[in-house]
Give the backbone structure.
Amino acid sequence: MSFKCGIVGLPNVGKSTLFNALTNSNKAQAANFPFCTIDPNIGVVAVPDQRLENLAKISQSKKIINTSISFVDIAGLVKGASKGEGLGNKFLSHIREVDAIIHMIRCFDSSDIQNVNPNVDPVRDLEIIETEMMLADLESIQKRLEKNNKKNVDEEQLKILEKALDFINNDKDLSILYSEFNKKQLNQSGLLSLKPKIFVCNVDEKSVQKGNEYTKTFMDKYKSENTLIISADIENQINELDITEKKNYMEMIGLKKTGLDMLIQKGYKILELETYFTSGPEETRAWTIQKNCTAPKAAGEIHTDFEKGFIRAETVSYIDFISNGGWVNSKTNGKMRLEGKDYIVKDGDVLNFRFNT
């Protein structure tokens, strides 16, 4: 499975610049006027993982196949979007299609880049976007709970929608619903306000290490757990350099990880994702799965027939596979295990599936 992150925010906060940097492309038009992005741009990016290279060397694989992440550059939202202001509901619908939301927030001063508001205020800007998404949810819930539509909604979804309606009307935190309903059911509700969120404070070069007064104000309110400080301009510059130049430049400005690496790491965490590997002479490949995924479900990521006809999984941890030099020695040294249908796959497992055709 691949996961999809939508980059949202007010106009001119750096969404398209970040998208181009993350995807190493110029797909998204980045211009100094509101709504320069109309149709959403989509870029698929390989997830970097040094473990793949190490496994491939041992297995002498002909190919290496990374798992991937998709980024979607969604047009800038403005106050009143839920009622059609700016580019309106069309773009709120694009947010419904993503697994997680990257909130891009302006945390820099610039007389050269237009600001749709009179001053820089990251807390206010986020509240505008969150309010519009909540209003869109409110309209969606009310329509689905109308008498004519209600009969098409199953009982569990009705409970979620009714509870969400109550929370929105009484200004309660919708995230509390995660303690009352399971994640899968909440995802099926399609509510924008329930989507996992990453906050990206877009700063200038001098603020990329320690942030600035704007990032401090923002994190005082929204904490730092799901907040990243990134300079979209710097990320663009990094992408134009070769490996050696990139390393030297990042050391010079005190940057330990690229924005892409930080977003992938955070995305995996908030979406509760893990990686397992298959490795042999033909290819070494990474596969993305949900945490607590059973072996048959993991096999199903390769092909549905693997899940249906699952017999067992030959399993070696990444560390054991590397230290024992591959499948043969791992088996000889007792590091390969045979796991059945109830086995919960762990991050870094190297698996070989046996199944009935």
Summary: The first strand starts at residue 3 and ends at 8. The chain has 15 helices and twelve strands. The first helix runs from residue 15 to 23.
